[in-house]
Amino acid sequence: MSVLTGRAPRGALLLTLPAIAVLLLVMAVPFGVIVLRSFAEPVPGLANYVWFFQTPVNLTVLARTFTIAFWVTACCVLVAYPYAFAMSIAGPRLRLALIMCVLVPFWVSGVVRTLAWVILLQDSGVINRILLALGFEKVRLIRTQLGVTIGMTQVLLPFMIMPLYAVMRGIDLRLLQAARSLGAHPVKSFFQIYLPLSLPGVFAGATLVFILSLGFYITPLLLGGPQSTMLSTLIQQQVLSLLSWGRGGAMGVVLLVATFGVLALAGPFMRRSYQISGGSR
Amino acid sequence: MTGFRPGRLLLQLSCLLIAIWLVAPTLVVIPMSFADRKSLAFPPQGFSTQWYANFFSNPQWFGSLVVSLKIAAMVAVVATVIGTMAAIGIERLKTRAGGIIRVVLLTPMIVPGVVLAVGIYAVYLDTRLVGTWTGYVLAHTLLAIPFVVIAVGANLAVFDERLETAAASLGASRLTTFFTVTLPLILPGILSGALFAFVTSFDEVIVSLFITSPQLKTLPVQIFSSMTRDADPTVAAVGSLIFLATTLIIGLGLIIGLRRRGA
């Protein structure tokens, strides 16, 4: 009997128990409390949810949260695709440099990276100085939706590049050579062979970035203004400023449902694209 | 792919721009940290190291660094032990149940931070855990476990189980087998899991913002409140130090990894 091959599933289950206990105590119970309070405070019933869906401001913020998440995801796909492709075909030294460029910002805390964007985007910041020097007019970036989108895209980009790279690394480039030797134009062989094979990576990365964008808090809070508030900020205001646990809880439940809803919707797509690629894993 | 020159050039150019866009924005904190006036206007006028001096001499700043390092070290130990146990358990189950447990253990990575933070805050208010070491370590451990499960799981996936059978057939007990055969072989995964756990805790800000107290404050919370309060270049000095430490650690890790693979 060994630790890994032992035939005692009960022992194996026991090993996972401490992790599950932490998950229950620090995630499941807190979520349960939020759901409970959203239905129970200040009076039992659906009042908080009726309020949420009947207040125009809330609906505007909800729609904006999805819009920003969509644009951030789209930008991430467009930027990450060529980069991950280059990583997958580069030689070892260049690949190391490209990986460093992804990992260093990924590991430097999000707060520090957001601070950098505050310095860059502020009205007298670097970007506006460059624009002025080039003869353009000043653009309002900080406290706008555009500024939030730029900052979030850069912070979330590693989450798009890494899954994409993992899939692209496994694609056999000889398929492209075969297509070319059979007379296919490089553009055609890219769209008919490479792109479909890389789609699982695109779906995995896009789903991850979209979900993380929906719940983003620090970057929109520091880079955004009243006109670019996202759902997370609204939840924090309800709970910490207005001490309205019921309404804040209802908003939290809406955000949770949205997150897992997107995940459930994306699941079948990810599986289908895996089948198209012919891979079994 | 010799006939592909224009496309290749375009690819190289766009990758260069993306690489700059990934790294350069963070670099602005370095010149900013040497500003001589209390302002975040860029480029800074003059030169001074007063913000670094302020960071190391001001108890608000240096104290929060010490708190963050202590919490991160505790989280690294707790999350690595719990996460490694879970990863081994999942690998041994080899059934649907194992897969489900794995997915469930990874959820803390994707749940919206503020919802989690509000929930934890509610529970901590009732259990008097707000602003306590236990409170921080528990919350950060939850967020760090997924990284350990992934890192150790990846290592276990390439681990040859026949080695354990061989050890057992030679009369080694299960514990001896684990400590002399299994553990040394999955040690790289455990170490990288521990590093991930440390960094996850050290960087965590959303939950910490809710469960913080004036007496026990972590560094990211201190940075965040300083940024929302005034334009103090000390945040840039801290940011530069974190950036430098991160680059050194990752660079060394990658180079050692590459050397070992080459050898």
Strand content of chain A: under 5%
CATH class of chain A: Mainly Alpha
Count, helices of chain B: 12
* Largest sheet geometry of chain A: none
SSE string of chain A: HHHHHHHHHHHH
Oligomer: heterodimer
State the end-to-end distance of chain B. Answer: 30 Å
- CA gyration radius of chain A, whole angstroms: 23 Å
Shape of chain A: globular
| Ends apart, CA distance between termini of chain A | 29 Å
H/E element string of chain B?
HHHHHHHHHHHH
- What is the 3D form of chain B? globular
- Total domain modules of chain A: 1
The CATH topology of chain A = MetI-like fold
Domain ABC transmembrane type-1 (chain A): 62-266
Keywords (chain A): Cell membrane, Membrane, Transmembrane, Transmembrane helix, Transport
Family (chain A): Belongs to the binding-protein-dependent transport system permease family. CysTW subfamily.
Subcellular location (chain A): Cell membrane
Please provide a written account of the structure.
The complex is a heterodimer of chains A (281) and B (263). Chain A has one domain (47-276): Orthogonal Bundle (MetI-like fold). Chain A has twelve helices and no strands. Chain A has helices spanning 9-40, 47-54, 56-89, 92-107, 110-121, 126-133, 145-169, 174-181, 186-214, 218-223, 231-241, 245-276. Chain A starts with 8 loop residues before the first helix and ends in a 5-residue tail after the last helix. Chain B has a domain at 61-224: MetI-like fold. Helix content of chain B is 78%, strand content 0%. In chain B, helix 4 (59-93) packs antiparallel against helix 9. Chain B is globular. The interface between A and B is large, with 84 and 94 residues. Chain A: InterPro entries: MetI-like (IPR000515), MetI-like_sf (IPR035906). Chain A: It comes from Ancylobacter vacuolatus.
